[in-house]
Design a protein that fits this description.
This protein is mainly beta. The protein contains 1 helix and 11 strands; from the N terminus they run E-E-E-E-E-E-E-E-E-E-E-H.
Length: 138
């Protein structure tokens, strides 16, 4: 999966984030490659490994992957977001891969259906409210 900044709509008041799937690859050509070269977090659970990180292509690009924790690290799926910022933390349990971006958003990917990701605000992230950011000084 690949996400772009134009695919997620943000209502600053409601904190309602949406996304849509741009493509599901079945084959790659050299023009389709993107570096997902920096791993910032990793977590294992029951024979699987979740990884998260950033791309050297641009600072807004983050990625999350689920692999088998076998000798070949077989890829189950990879999600790349062009507007999430890097993913600096990842956890894994029996049903969900949860990644937190440096932008203060928590992405919860169902392990068996990552396209049904839910994006919420990280309550620990000091994200200013729209009124404080764009409203009158006071």
């Amino acid at each position: 999966m690949r996400f772009s900044p134009y695919d997620r709509l943000h209502d600053a008041e409601a904190e309602d984030w949406h996304w849509c799937e741009l493509l599901r690859a079945t084959a790659w050509t050299p023009n389709d490659w993107m570096d997902v070269d920096t791993t910032l977090a990793s977590c294992t659970d029951a024979g699987s490994r979740a990884l998260a990180g950033e791309s050297s292509d641009h600072g807004s690009i983050g990625w999350v992957a689920l692999t088998r924790d076998d000798d070949h690290h077989t890829l189950e799926w990879l999600a790349v977001s062009c507007a999430s910022n890097p993913f600096a933390d990842v956890t894994l349990d029996a049903t969900t891969v949860t990644a937190t971006s440096t932008l203060g958003r928590v992405w919860a990917f169902p392990r068996d259906a990552p396209q049904q990701v839910k994006i919420t605000r990280d309550p620990a992230y000091p994200w200013p409210s729209p009124a404080r950011t764009f409203g009158p000084a006071g």
